[in-house]
Amino acid sequence: MLKRYLLLTEKINNDWYPTFGELQEFLRRHDLDISGRTLQRDIRHIRNEYGIEIEYDRRHRGYRINREKSLDVNGFLRFMGLVRTADILTESLRDGRGAIRNLDFDSVHMFSGKEHIRDLLQAIRDRRIVGITHQKFDRDEPTNVTLRPYLLREYQYRWYLVGIPEGESEPKNYGLDRIHRLDVLPETFERTREAYVREKFAHTVGVTFSAGDPVAVTVRCTELTGKYLLSLPIHNSQEIVDRSGEWWTVRYHVVPNFEFEQKLLMHLYQLEVVEPAWFREAFARRVREAAKVYDE
């Protein structure tokens, strides 16, 4: 069932208004031969359960995703992709040690804190206040925090709890790998700040919040770097403005923060910031600092 949901959403998201028959044929090619009634039920379930508004467009006589009415299309596709990948890996593990030998994972670090995910998802769904004991990297002693949980966010192999601490109004994030204790309390709360929290993250790379409104950041990069960014975007707002020559122009709509800057610095001499001027100057200064450290 989850495989069908993923394939349907990807097909409608990537293709130009696929028809009902084309959706059925697409699933059939993936060994999923279902009736028209089941297909209609799947579309309704994706809409009702996951907030992905799949609509029939009479003008184009096919289906499309209404992104304005949908909750988070990219997040849904990523989540379903992870589920599908896990399913494939599970099937592969039936081959025993041969499958393990053929897999080479990127990080040697085994993510800790995953045992909290189920309880936190339940608390977020039920609007339950949670109490945690959290250890910051820059502090010797852990701190106890009571907060309203709003969402879990994954970034670079780690998961973070995003919530608003008791007595505060701004969201903060807490790495699950540094949560030593988790208590789901009986008290509930109203999710009056949910839209605000999601808006914060909509224009943020990573998990570090920066003050200010989102701005248009334009960069120039080599064709090779442009192809890399095209295959692995830094942010959902990434737009390839021009790729007609040796240098490509790429634009983002973000609140520049530490993680965004670090992503750009990965390409160092292959990329330069064009605008806004204040960020161009700050980025150029960081490039000079990085070059100085490298030379030393």
What does this structure look like?
Helices cover 40% and strands 25% of the residues. The mean pLDDT is 88. The chain is globular. The longest helix has 20 residues, at 73-92. It folds into 3 domains: 2-75, Orthogonal Bundle (Arc Repressor Mutant, subunit A); 114-201, Roll (SH3 type barrels); 215-295, Phenol Hydroxylase P2 Protein (Alpha-Beta Complex), CATH 3.90.56. It starts with a helix and ends with a helix. Strand 5 and strand 6 form a beta hairpin. It has 10 helices and 11 strands. By secondary structure, it is an alpha+beta fold.
- Bulk shape: globular
Number of domains: 3
Secondary structure tally: strands:
11
Largest sheet: 5 strands, antiparallel
How far apart the termini lie comes to 56 Å
Instruction: Find the CATH topology of the largest domain.
Output: SH3 type barrels
Taken as a percent bin, the fraction of beta residues is: 25-35%
The CATH C-level class name of the largest domain: Mainly Beta
Strand order of the largest sheet: 6-5-4-3-7
Total number of helices: 10
Radius of gyration: 22 Å
> What is the share of helical residues?
25-40%
Structural class: alpha+beta
| Average of pLDDT | 88
Compressed to H and E, one letter per element, the order equals HHHEEHHHEEEEEHEHEEHEH
What does the secondary structure layout of this molecule look like, with pairings?
Layout: H1 2-14, H2 20-29, H3 36-50, E1 54-57, E2 62-65, H4 73-92, H5 97-101, H6 117-126, E3 128-134, E4 143-155, E5 158-165, E6 172-175, E7 179-188, H7 194-202, E8 215-222, H8 223-231, E9 239-242, E10 247-254, H9 258-265, E11 271-275, H10 277-295
Antiparallel strand pairs: 1-2, 3-4, 3-7, 4-5, 5-6, 8-10, 8-11, 9-10
